[in-house]
Amino acid sequence: MNVARIPKILAYVGAILLSAVFIYPYYWMFIGSFRSTEQILTAPLRLLPEAFNLSAYGEIVSVGGASLLRLTINSFWITTASTAIAVTVTALGAYALTRRPKLLGFGLIRYGFLLTIMYPFMLLVIPVFIVMFHLGLLGTYTGIILFLSLGPIQFFLFEQFFRSFPRELIDAALIDGASELGVLFRVVLPVARPVVGTVTLITFLLNWSQWFPVLVISRTPDTYTLPAALLTMNSELGTNFQGIMALATLTTLPVVVVFILTQRRVMHGIAAGAIKG
Amino acid sequence: MTRAQPMPVWAHEMWRYRVLYLFVLPFAALVVLFGLWPIVQSIILSFASSSTAFRLSPDYVGLENFQTIFADRRFIASLRVTLLYTAISVVLNVAFALGYAVLLNSGYLKRGNTFFRLAVFLPVITPDVAGFIVWKWMYNQNFGAVNAVLGSLGLPMFGGIADTDTVLTALVAAELWKHVGFYTIIFLTNMQLLDPALDEAAKIDGATAWRRFWHVTLPQLRPAITINAVFALIQFLKTFTVVIVMTKGGPNFSTNFISYYAFQKFDQAAYGEAMAMATTLFVLVLFLTYFLYWVLERTDWR
Fold this sequence. Notes:
The structure holds two protein chains of two kinds. Chain A is about 75% helix and about 0% strand. By secondary structure, chain A is an all-alpha fold.
């Protein structure tokens, strides 16, 4: 055998083994949702289920007081609405803040935001409960959606884009008599389409996974999302292995599909947003 | 003819760019309502009596909440285990990510590179609750996959999350699975910015691969190492989800990390103590982040 090929073979063996470790939990979860507890006890590592037993998916049509349909609709509604608001509000904010960073108050807003994202997120949620109480938004979709509309990566991606946007284009349009709104809609937005797309994707993926603010701001399971319901199922019905795996599969599937279809863009975007932050 | 007093420059500027103020208004409102107000609220409440926390003007008790938590031996233990867990996790995640990024970038893995990246990054975008629930069951003594694999290889059983001696290892592994892809991708992105000419020059000078990595590649990756270490520090200091899903602070309080303990206090309506713990953790995060940044920036890497 050619000695020069040994490092290459070793590299492939390592990478394939590691990838298998990273992917195996998904496989185990998916197969586990079709297998009864007894079947798993006898053969934990079986690669294919004995039968595609769908009973677990039937058992979870209702989870902890909310229907699976309701939870799924909540997940899509809360994620979509908070993504739309996050992208619009953050894009406008970052645009204004980078256009004229020295305007009175703009520096303060930026520092206030930076302080917010330094605060440990999980611990921010607790005082947010009290803020929501004062605002009368406890238990409402509005409260959950608005809270999920603020995020670091979104802001940094937009800020980075607007900072590198050629000034001359804006100035030329202003000299030609365009209004600020005209500049935004006819000069900046057409070029910003790719970054808006990337931020939308990333926000959707990140907000889909949110559960803690959902649990804290909700008053009843009627406003729970899939991950929030999965957590309550984990605490309350801790032994229904098959049902938990079925719900975990349903919770994971949408983001995995979206990610696989858009992986290059998502990974580039997250890395870029993180590095500039 | 009377002339109006000329407007001061700043007011003129504000009026001229009034549309920009309109653009920034919703963003500023979100920052104030769901960022600054809750932070101020939590700091204020850490000096207030729990039973009056929901009033607009609560009763202040000075440092009493802080005295209570620092006299609580369980909180001191919590502080200690949080720091230990963070130190182990930061080092392991950054080292693993660096090693794996070097492997993926080595040129040996041209075919399938996209797949390898996808596999390591997939857990990052997976809902954390779902990922950790699967790991919780994989660690199960009776039918978890982990012990089944160890058993079939003839290795000793792993205690997983049921045993105080192994629970930290179990959480470190599950969280590495969840987060290491993020750090790996940051290293890979940074490696695309490396100057290949430097490596070539060292090669011509007869430097071995190891020496080239240590003296040429690594110093260039310094910004990425700093970013990753700081991100990892912030990430692991506030470890929460893995605990609430897998161990609930147990067994025997061995994984009772600060953010989980603060949440427990909140759940028991001890708002003052919960906020005092939150404030302590916030100060700890700020201080350690700054300290780590300072150390990494000062280290001589050559």
